[in-house]
């Protein structure tokens, strides 16, 4: 075993136990593991829990703080403010902020993170060039996944599609989408799924990010996932409009989402304020 943690207490209250780990996976939990590990940690009765997972992050926009333009009190305002701010992004600036954010997450127990990285005619591939090397730099502590994210839209921002293709070839592990910020949300989704199939990538969408039920797309995403054979490979973030549906309308929609194996990510730290 690569690592044995001795005399640990589990979240269930069971303990003390020894936890054996090989090749990054827990392989045995027992009151006493006789085998010696290449490395050993004496927990002395302390709690041992699985690493935390940060499933929706934006390292390229992390910690903008006072450098972020004003006017971000709504979703539309936040998108405009970000578009303005990223004109000044440099590779060094993105990496400096991303490293700080990663180290904050690691210190607090995060061992897996998926980050969206914007690609568009404004910022080009600078975000990818900055973030992809950090996967290797921080591999000792965190598994970092990169989602290629067309924040400015695809059809609304000509030139974005080839940038997305380039970003996927650079190491993007998921295809992102934001249909509510494009001139044709349904065509946007179709292209996202086309790229996912072409590159054999998962899909991770910003979706239905508004307060009224309006023109919900989550049902169509479920249908697309099933039609394209992408069940279990699609994630939908925000989807705050679901909270405005009557239970009678929500139940059948939830069934379609379940059948498509779509993961739902709620993001209250953002959605309560925008």
Give a written overview of the molecule:
- This protein is of the alpha/beta class and 274 residues long.
- It folds into 2 domains: 40 residues, no CATH class; 220 residues, Metal-dependent hydrolases (TIM Barrel, Alpha-Beta Barrel), CATH 3.20.20.140.
- It has 8 helices and 11 strands.
- Strand 2 and strand 3 form a beta hairpin.
- It is globular.
- The model has no long low-confidence stretch (mean pLDDT 93).
Q: List the domain count as a whole number.
A: 2
Order of helices and strands: EEEEEHHEHEHEHEHEHEH
Largest sheet: 7 strands, parallel
Name given to the CATH architecture of the largest domain: Alpha-Beta Barrel
How many E-type strands?
11
User: What is the quaternary state of this protein?
Assistant: single chain
Task: Give the helices and strands, then pairings.
Elements: E1 3-8, E2 17-22, E3 25-30, E4 39-42, E5 52-57, H1 75-85, H2 91-107, E6 110-118, H3 126-137, E7 143-149, H4 160-170, E8 174-177, H5 185-199, E9 202-207, H6 218-227, E10 234-238, H7 247-259, E11 263-265, H8 268-271
Parallel strand pairs: 1-4, 5-6, 6-7, 7-8, 8-9, 9-10, 10-11
Antiparallel strand pairs: 1-2, 2-3
Question: Could you provide a short overview of the structure?
Answer:
This protein has helices spanning 75-85, 91-107, 126-137, 160-170, 185-199, 218-227, 247-259, 268-271; strands at residues 3-8, 17-22, 25-30, 39-42, 52-57, 110-118, 143-149, 174-177, 202-207, 234-238, 263-265.
